[in-house]
From TrEMBL:
It comes from marine metagenome. This is Phage major capsid protein.
């Protein structure tokens, strides 16, 4: 059930209008507002990209997801360069060194980083998490930055376990889960978008 519901939400996030990308710049991003980008990525996601993306989000008045923080979700390898950057920054600070020892991705520029391995790598023009759409230069992969009020769920019948009516004189039995509902982006226009995707044209 969890994987089906995660997919339902991820499919909605994939329709977000705001996309940011970088061809080779390590400290700037190109922003588009039509759910696509014409920029083909050829650089790993790094700390200076995070700064540029946070600037985009703040200047668009996107409220923080929780407290004062935005959230970013991506694959561990998408965060690798960023994690290396953060280790260099944190290694001489006691709390930072403890984070390194714990393997935490951490928080930077008001963004908390969350690793996931459920939604496939790839995407670009074919959609978030489409393995056939792996990025051309293989330098990075999708990352989703979230502000508050991103995806809403409408539930008609919440998740439940249902038992099969026994057949074959009681020998054929079964259980299954059942749910009736849906999800959608709360803000579907670029001007009000609460989701920003690190993306690539190919």
């Amino acid at each position: 059930a969890a994987s089906v519901l995660d997919t339902m939400v991820a499919d909605q996030i994939d329709t977000c209008k705001l996309r940011v990308a970088s061809a080779t710049a390590t400290d700037a991003v190109v922003t588009t507002v039509n759910a696509a980008t014409v920029t083909t990525n050829n650089v790993a996601l790094g700390k200076d990209h995070i700064k540029a993306i946070v600037d985009v989000m703040k200047e668009r008045n996107i409220p923080a997801y929780e407290g004062d923080d935005y959230f970013c979700i991506a694959w561990p390898t998408t965060f690798r360069t960023l994690k290396n950057n953060l280790e260099t920054i944190s290694q001489y600070v006691e709390t930072g060194f403890q984070m390194i020892r714990n393997g935490e991705t951490g928080r930077y520029e008001g963004v908390r980083f969350v690793e996931q391995t459920y939604r496939a790598k790839g995407g670009s023009a074919t959609g978030l998490g489409t393995p056939a759409g792996a990025w051309t230069n293989s330098k990075s992969d999708w990352a989703v930055f979230l502000g508050a009020d991103t995806v809403a769920e409408a539930v008609a019948i919440p998740e439940e376990i249902r038992g099969k009516i026994p057949t074959d004189y009681g020998r054929a039995r079964g259980i299954a889960w059942y749910y009736l509902g849906g999800a959608g982006l709360v803000h579907t226009t670029a001007a009000e978008s609460r989701v920003v995707m690190w993306d690539s044209a190919a």
